[in-house]
Amino acid sequence: MGGRIKTWKKRWFCFDRQRRLLAYYVDKEEAKLKGVIYFQAIEEVYYDHLRSAFKSPNPKLTFCVKTYDRLFCLVAPSAEAMRIWMDAIVTAAEENTRY
Q: What is the CATH number of domain 12-95?
């Protein structure tokens, strides 16, 4: 879901353990970087069980990544993909707090 304008847009996410961030792009060609989420800024990652993401295209596959300054609401393509992304992001954020 967009930051300023709260509409849903497809984005391509790349998990970068070396640089300790999630980068997101307009599409999978990764030509235009839209933003980054630094692991150190992540406060929590959770399944959107309260359905707080406005008009999610698929509420059952929606999860949130909360940082110090923004709430990112994401929709995974499947339940398995959602679990994998959530586990990877939580693990990376926890590892980053050790440094």
A: 2.30.29.30
Residue 98 buriedness (CB in 10 A; 0-12 / 13-18 / 19+):
exposed
How many Cβ atoms are within 10 Å of 75's Cβ, its own excluded? 20
Burial of 32-60, coded b for 16+ CB within 10 Å and e otherwise, reads eeeeebebebbeebeebeeeebeebeeee
Q: Where are the domains of the chain?
A: 12-95
Rg of the Cα trace of the chain?
Answer: 13
**pLDDT, tens digit (0-9, with 9 covering 90-100), for 40-76:** 999 999 998 878 777 888 989 999 999 999 999 999 9
Q: pLDDT, tens digit, for every residue of 12-42?
A: 999 999 999 999 999 989 889 999 999 999 9
